[in-house]
């Protein structure tokens, strides 16, 4: 009997509510490891997870049986609960509503991996807002800036 074989590569980008700089270096890697565990627990394959204080990039090999929106919902819900349980931030931590999801071919894996790996360096020269708008333009995604995120002033 013939099987179905496929692999879809998705980069998710999502921000801390209000784009606040709450993901602090001393514990940021723990959050990224936790997110990797969520992805593995859903029988998906995390490729790389990285980010800076106000947003995260998650690159995942997604099986087509997993809806893109279900995985990001689970990542955001479970990781915000984890952060709150650790008491790493004053008040309640949460992610902003919405996210970006961008697809890639197998031949692009290394380039996307390197891009996500170098987030700290990348954001010395480019704001998150500029980066996100560039992604939307590159992928030709129609959008209205006023509905993207609750942008704080740059």
UniProtKB/TrEMBL annotation:
<dbReference type="InterPro" id="IPR036515">
    <property type="entry name" value="Transposase_17_sf"/>
</dbReference>
<dbReference type="Pfam" id="PF01797">
    <property type="entry name" value="Y1_Tnp"/>
</dbReference>
<protein>
    <submittedName>
        <fullName>IS200/IS605 family transposase</fullName>
    </submittedName>
</protein>
<feature type="domain" description="Transposase IS200-like">
    <location>
        <begin position="5"/>
        <end position="119"/>
    </location>
</feature>
<dbReference type="InterPro" id="IPR002686">
    <property type="entry name" value="Transposase_17"/>
</dbReference>
């Amino acid at each position: 009997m013939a099987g179905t074989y496929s692999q879809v590569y998705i980069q998710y980008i999502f921000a801390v509510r209000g784009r606040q700089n709450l993901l602090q270096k001393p514990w940021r890697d723990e959050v990224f490891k936790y997110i990797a565990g969520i992805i593995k627990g859903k029988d998906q394959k995390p490729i790389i997870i990285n980010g800076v204080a106000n947003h995260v990039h998650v690159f995942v090999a997604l099986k087509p049986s997993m809806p893109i929106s279900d995985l990001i919902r689970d990542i955001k819900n479970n990781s915000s609960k984890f952060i709150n349980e650790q008491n790493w931030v004053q008040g309640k931590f949460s992610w902003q509503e919405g996210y970006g999801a961008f697809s890639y071919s197998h031949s692009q894996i290394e380039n996307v991996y390197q891009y996500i790996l170098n987030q700290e360096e990348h954001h010395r020269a480019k704001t998150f807002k500029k980066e996100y708008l560039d992604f939307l333009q590159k992928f030709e995604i129609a959008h209205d800036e006023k509905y993207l995120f609750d942008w704080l002033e740059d």
